[in-house]
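Sample A.
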Amino acid sequence: MPRRLTPRDRCVVIGAGGLGHIGVQVLRAIAPAELIVVDRNPDAVELARSLGADHGVVADGGQVEAVLDLTGGHGAEVVIDFVGEGGSTAEGVRMLRRAGDYHVVGYGEDLVVPTIDVISSEIGFIGDLVGSYNDLCDLMALAARGAVTLHTAKYALDDFRSAVDDLAAGRIRGRAVLVP
């Protein structure tokens, strides 16, 4: 869980897909910060906006500059990266303000940051895998009151190839689930 976010803070969420769309809803329910969502897919950005994100930025090459513009050139207090690949880590670090926290959830590439940049900017890196039992209880409470809903596309087990193809092509908003 990110540090306590205040109404003066900004939080960037990179990736509004499977897990990211849940993260946006949780953040909206528990944090008063301004939420900025970045995703390559315009439909995922629109889904995030409909779920409570204050701003949506399509990752089209100008996403770092767009986030910096939205934050007055300072960057966000917290960046949560649900992608962790395809350049998102380098871009996410550039979206972070001085003394900010970068939460890595997604994985797939190396996080490469010169140590002098970490020290001189006083930024922190936090790896988040699944959360605690209490985090799960909190998520279930939010879901029970309708503050968090799962957007899913269901596929039969024998139609798994279509699920994989749809995920690869960016046609899934939310999560893809295989059912018997």
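Sample B, a different protein:
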Amino acid sequence: MPERFRSGAGRLCLDFVRTLRYRGTPSEVEELPDGTAWGAWIDQLGPFSAPVRPASAREAVALREAVYELLTGPVRPATRQRLNRFAALPAPAPSLASSGELRWQAADPASAMLSLLARDALELVTSPEFARVRRCAGPRCGALFLDTSRPGTRRWCSMEVCGNRVKKSTYRAKAAAS
């Protein structure tokens, strides 16, 4: 299956927040408009081997916005309660298949995915890694990512996309000025 959603932000909850692409810009795009899209996100980035088909993306979008608020602060009491409620949902359970492969199971995979995402966000904001969460410097992007570079000075969510765009734009501006 070709990748539909962006990943590589450094944490699953950061990849999840990116489903509101170009947040805060005129180009903002909702990538989870319905249950089909939410299921596709789980299928691409979640731990389940079987396709997940949730009826709606309403809870996913509510969690995404709560995670975004948590990461960018300040956090309202209602948001904290929402995050805690999602984190308390049953999480997927690992099991070993006869083939020796690790499989993840849940009675309700979509709810279990919400639990994983909420737990990941809560773990991130209470860890030393949180100091390395950055906003992409790309003028049209705004995605959050975990800066795992040794000096902690990474500027773009993706050098191949946002970094390359900025460098091309700078080069063109310099060339036009000469």
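Observation for Sample B: The mean pLDDT is 91.
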